[in-house]
Design brief:
350 residues; mainly beta; Tachylectin-2, Chain A; 5-stranded antiparallel sheet; 3 helices
Length: 350
Amino acid sequence: MKLKKNSLNPILEPHQEHHWENLAVCNPGAWYEDGKFYLLYRAAGDDEDHVIRFGLAESTDGIHFKRVSNQPVFEPSEDGPDSGGVEDPRIVKFGDSFYVTYAYRPYPPGRYWNFEHDEVQIPKVDEYAPAVFKRNIANTGLATTKDFKTWRRLGRITQSNLDDRDAILFPEKIGDKYALLHRPKEWIGEEYGCDYPSIWITFSEDLMVWDEESHLLIAGREGTWEEKLGGSAPPLKTDEGWLMLYHGVEDGGTGQYRVGAALLDLEDPTKIVGRSKNFLMEPEYYYETEGFYEGCVFPTGNIIVDNKLYVYYGGADKYVGLATCQTDELLDYLLTDEITVPVNGTKLES
């Protein structure tokens, strides 16, 4: 089973006339409503600090997108905790408002492709500065909007001393609580039940204060394409369960990002009812292998329209690509693929 990449990829690429997006355009959050597709995409210009912002594009067919403005629709705050840059939006909707989780830093990351993987520039601060400033740690924030143009920042939803990105909301409550996938990079070792960064799930009554207890959802498999893991796009509700895409990275191999999928129980998403044994997508084309991370497909948005799954992803940290499949075919694959599902239920009190 493989996701089919669109022949018109990349469907969005850097725009040379806009200084804030003339270097990289990737990792979009996606939404579909009233016959229109929306992409809230990550964008960066050719500046030394590599400040990251969000742009907005719209489409009626999900393939041909038009930018709605020559300016960013969401930027780092001037003096707040996310003043260093905003990254990788994931979109859900509650009531008449969109809720967007996004990663941010107190200082710009710099040209990270010149550093070791997952390393960024470190600011000069005094000895009294908290860890989040000393190490320029990436946290996750939550913002809300009704039109993707006017925003209210609600604040940080992860621990400030953890690099906890890939934080993704479920699009509806599970019972009487909200659910959140997250990936705390430091939670590895025997006490956590995993040897590599993994996908965890936690719950909340109000979207801001999350349970002290977090559950290990999916751990990596040593020696495979998915040793290190992270969530990709918001889970999608189907009759068979919550359809969840995730990314996997070889720790000791080429370091390429590939895409897998899992199916979670509708009433108890800490339970996995299906998981792909092999990856559904890997880097192949220039827009996935020639950029600022060479060898990366990184989904951040997915939509189901008339049984067709649209997967929007970043390619090589530079472009936006689209891949599709029939939803029922993917669900059948996840329910029949022969794989030993790891025991779930590891809990951690933060």
